[in-house]
Each structure stands twice: as structure tokens, then as C-alpha cells.
Amino acid sequence: MISWQQTGMIIAILLIVLGPRKLPKVTKEIGKTLGSIKKETQEIKDQVDITKEIK
């Protein structure tokens, strides 16, 4: 898990590299991607649970 200090450091670096105009768009896309990954991971876990119940 990433701490708040590490998150702050990452945001500061992104702000320097991308600039203040691009940062909101990039963070929004990162959030969407992470949400999608979380959803897919949960679906895989659900499928594994169903398979275990069948056996």
C-alpha cells in the first residue's frame, strides 16, 4: 500500500513533469484505469469462487 507521503511525492513529480494543465486529465485517466483493473480483478475472483463451489 502506498502511504500519503509517497502519494504526495508522486503528485509533486507529476506536477513538475506534466505541468498543472495536464495533471487533472492524467489523474482522471489513471483513476479510470485503476477502477477498471479493480473491477476485472473482482470478476476473476468471483469466477474462481464459482468454480470452487462447483467442485
UniProtKB/TrEMBL annotation:
It comes from the Bacteria. GO terms for cellular component: membrane. InterPro entries: TatA/B/E (IPR003369). It is a single-pass membrane protein. It is found in: Membrane. Pfam families: TatA_B_E. The keyword Transport applies. Keywords: Membrane, Protein transport, Translocation, Transmembrane, Transmembrane helix, Transport. GO terms for biological process: protein transport. This is Sec-independent translocation protein mttA/Hcf106. The lineage of its organism: Bacteria, Pseudomonadati, Thermodesulfobiota, Thermodesulfobiia, Thermodesulfobiales.
